[in-house]
Each structure stands twice: as C-alpha cells, then as structure tokens.
Specification:
Blueprint: H1 19-38, H2 41-57, H3 59-70, H4 74-94, E1 101-103, E2 111-118, E3 121-125, H5 133-145, E4 148-154, H6 159-171, E5 178-183, H7 187-196, E6 200-206, H8 209-219, E7 225-229, E8 234-238, H9 244-256, E9 266-272, H10 276-288, H11 308-323, E10 327-330, E11 346-349, H12 356-359, E12 366-372, H13 375-383, E13 387-388, E14 390-394, H14 398-407, E15 412-415, E16 430-431, E17 434-435, H15 440-443, E18 448-455
Parallel strand pairs: 3-4, 3-6, 4-5, 6-7, 8-9, 8-14, 9-12, 11-12, 14-15
Antiparallel strand pairs: 1-2, 2-18, 7-17, 10-11, 13-16
Helix pairs in contact: 1-7, 2-4, 2-5, 2-6, 3-4, 3-6, 4-5, 7-8, 9-10
C-alpha cells in the first residue's frame, strides 16, 4: 500500500480515510512481514543506503514540498531533508550490527543465549512540524530491525511522506513494508484503530503529552510496546561566565528554529543577573533583523505558523502575559497583511509566575526571558514542570556544567550549544515527556524484542591437564 502522489485517495479531506483503510494497511504490513524480517541485516542495510542516496539526490524537490506544506523558509526546509536523510544513513549502518549475547549458565550442562528479533508490525504516528525527519527517524530503525510499518502522517503535511515512500520503492523496499494512511478530520479514528489492533505490536508517537497519554490508554488492552516523544518546556540557562556570543547564537537557534515550532525549542530563557541587560539588548537587535514571510522568498528567515489557530494561540499567550505585567521588547503581534498564520518573532520580559507561558509549551516564535541570581534558584525553577525533554546550559565553568547537567530533570542536556538533535545521539525525554529513545544505537532496540535460548543436557567433556 505504498502511496502514489497522483492517487486521489490521498487527497486530504473529510472522512476520505477511515478505520477500514487503516485495517487494510495493517493487513498489508502483516503480509509483508515474514519476507522482510527474514532478509539479512546486510540486505536491509543496502536498501536503506540506496534510499538515503535517493533522498539526497532529490533534496531540492523534497525541500520544496516541505515549504509548500509546512511553510518553512526554504533554507530551513532544505536543512530538514539533510537531517531526515541522516537517519536512513545511520540505521543503514546499524541494520547489520544487531547483536545478541551468550550468557554463562549456572549449571555446567546448560547453555544460554539471547537473540534480538523484530517486534513485528509497527504503527508510527508522525507530526507536521518535521514531515520528513520525524518519518525517517522512525522508519530507519523500524526497517533496519526487520519490522513492517503502518504510518499515520499528519493531515497538514501528507505529501512529503508520500514522496519519501516513493523513493523507498525505488531504493528496493518491497511493497507492503511501508504503508501510509493520512487524514485531517478523523485522525482519532485511525489512531484508535492502530492502538486496538492485535496485529500491531508497537506504537511510536511524536506529539502532545495529552494525545500520548490517550494513546497509551488505548494500547493497554493489547499490551503494545510504546515509544512516546511528547511535549517539552525546555529551560535555556545562561550563567554570568558564559560566552555571551555563543549563548545568543544558541538562543536564536533553539528558540526560533521553524518559527518556534519544535519540541526542543527553548521555552524559558533564564539569564543570570549580571549579564541579563546585555543579553536582552543584543537578542532584541538580532530578532529585529528577522524577516517573516512566505517560505519561497529568498530574503525570508522565518515562515508562518502551521495554522491560524496556532497563531491565535500564541497571540493569546502574549496577551495573557502582558495583562499580568510582562513587557514586550520586540514583536508581539499577528501579521494579517501576510496571512492568518503569521506572527511576529517576539521577546517578553518581566514575566510573572502565574503567566501561562511559564507552564505551557509555547510552540511559536515567542521568547520568554527570566532573570535569576543563584544556581540553586535557577535549577529549582527549571525543574518546576511536569515534562522533561530538552534543556540547555551555557557556562565555561566545567564543575558547574557537570553539576547542573546532573541536577536538571530532563532527558537531554545541551551544553554551550543550541543544537540538540543528531542521528548518532539518543533523543527522548523523561517524566511527562514520554518514554523510549529515537536515533543512536539505542533507537533500534525499541523495534526489537529479546528471545532467550536455553540448551540443556549438553554432554560436557572435561579437558585433561597436560
């Protein structure tokens, strides 16, 4: 059921795709599983590598699709294609290196071994903010492990995934190994079909904490393995001794990438008192130079938000903060002359504790900056949230870097950089930010299950001493 770009059944609309379509996709994946899992890891490796090569050869076209669907500025969209391809490259290398263990048994006539097997058919639910990269970050390890998949793509951005699936066919992925269903209005129905299916043995979901918890409840009756990469509330901590140029560069990258619509965007920027005025002044200068507009404009640095509802929500966060005493340093308004989805890159200061942006994930181009005095104070403030995905520290004190990194209750800590994600590094959170890890050598384990082999009554021949 690998899609074709000109297939009218893939047009996004009301109730075009339903639970019955999802069931057909599941059946297709189940039928393809025995042949795919029986291939050697080296064989799957070669196919993934060819897929990587094809993605890189079609980088410009895929970037154009991302800009069309998501609205990203073209350089950002092209960069996502490179990021997406890195997971295919990484897991092409991991596919041939799925190792088990030989375990010393306690009895002399017994032998024990552990092998890793593909868990089976997997349901993958991907978000709109990285329509290419979040797809390959899940597909890479799933296919490398020997699993077949049903992918529920975001209704806002279906065609990037469809194009990637066509390239996978050209690379040699057999029909039925990758199956894509997409919908905008009946997403919940399809999600429930995936969760309730006894055929699907694993769900991987990237999205909000609220939906992740709902999916976990729906999967309870079938006891699926789950990977959940959920919401964040990332602290970005800048100490007095930080390299302020690096910190400013990191704040711009981590806050305003994709117009603030990433799960690892810095949500709360904490700056120590001594350098706070200079940091705010220089950040204002940089943000004032951003150019917001349509993604294909070569001068544009930041595109629209994904929907008018998203822009309205960011506007509501700003109005709530300002109404409680916050100061708008830059921006703060929607840009209706560009369209309903556009919002100015914004900086807020003097934020009060009862403001919504303190506890809610912003998911927009809004930087909330807080002043702090002591290390103990900022660690307590940073950890005061239910989620724990990404965090950032800027300091040149090696002892403080080690100490604060260990004190932060987050699954990932970036030190003196605003870039968090890499195919070789495990990605994931703790607390209400989910479970499991994506990317890295650990990422493939979430698509495997262990099997223990015990051999008894071995005729043990004792060696004689010469």
């Amino acid at each position: 059921m690998t899609p074709k770009l000109n297939d009218p059944s893939l047009l996004v609309g009301k109730n075009l795709i339903n639970a019955q379509d999802a069931e057909r996709a599941i059946s297709s994946a189940a039928a393809a599983l025995p042949a795919w899992r029986s291939r050697t890891g080296r064989d799957r490796s070669r196919i993934l590598r060819r897929w990587y090569d094809l993605v890189m050869q079609n980088q410009q076209d895929l970037g154009t699709l991302i800009s069309w669907e998501n609205g990203k500025a073209k350089p950002d969209a092209d960069g996502e294609v490179i990021f997406a391809s890195s997971f295919l490259e990484w897991f092409s290398e991991e596919a041939a290196r799925i190792h088990g263990d030989v375990v010393p048994h306690s009895a002399p006539g017994f032998r024990a071994a552990v092998i890793k097997e593909p868990i089976g058919v997997c349901g993958l639910i991907t978000p709109w903010n990285f329509p290419a990269a979040m797809l390959t970050r899940k597909l890479g390890p799933a296919l490398a492990a020997g699993c077949t998949v049903v992918v529920k793509t975001a209704g806002e951005t279906p065609f990037t995934a469809n194009a990637l699936a066509i390239l996978s066919e050209r690379a040699g992925v057999p029909k039925g190994v990758i199956n894509i269903v997409t919908a905008l209005d009946n997403t919940a129905e399809i999600g429930q079909a995936l969760c309730n299916s006894n055929t699907i043995r694993k769900i991987s979901f990237t999205g909000s904490t609220r939906v992740g918890k709902l999916l976990m409840q729906q999967c309870s009756s079938t006891l699926k393995k789950m990977s959940l990469e959920l919401g964040g509330n990332a602290p970005f901590i800048v100490f007095n001794d930080a390299d302020i140029d690096l910190a400013l560069q990191g704040a711009i990258i981590s806050k305003f990438k994709s117009s603030g619509q990433t799960c690892v965007c810095s949500n709360r920027i904490f700056v120590q008192k001594e350098i706070y005025p200079e940091f705010v002044r220089r950040l204002k200068e940089s943000v004032s130079n951003f150019k917001v507009g349509h993604g294909f404009d070569a001068q544009v640095t930041h595109g629209p938000l994904i929907s008018s509802a998203a822009a309205e929500r960011v506007d509501g966060l700003v109005q709530d903060a300002v109404g409680k005493g916050a100061k708008v340093e830059v921006g703060g308004k929607r840009l209706p002359h560009l369209g309903p989805n556009f919002f100015e890159p914004t900086i807020l200061t003097n934020i009060k504790p009862n403001t919504r942006i303190v506890s809610e994930e912003i998911f927009g181009p809004l930087a909330a900056i807080y002043q702090f005095e002591t290390e103990e104070e900022v660690v307590e403030a940073a950890n005061k949230c239910e989620v724990g995905l990404a965090s950032y520290i800027y300091t040149q004190d090696i002892s403080r870097a080690a100490r604060v990194s260990e004190l932060l209750d987050f699954g990932m800590v970036a030190l003196n950089t605003g870039v968090m994600s890499d195919a070789a590094a495990p990605f994931g959170g703790i607390k209400h930010s989910g479970m499991g890890r994506e990317g890295s050598k650990y990422g493939i384990d979430d698509y495997m299950q262990l099997k223990t082999l015990i051999t008894g009554n071995v005729n043990v021949v004792r060696r004689s001493h010469l």
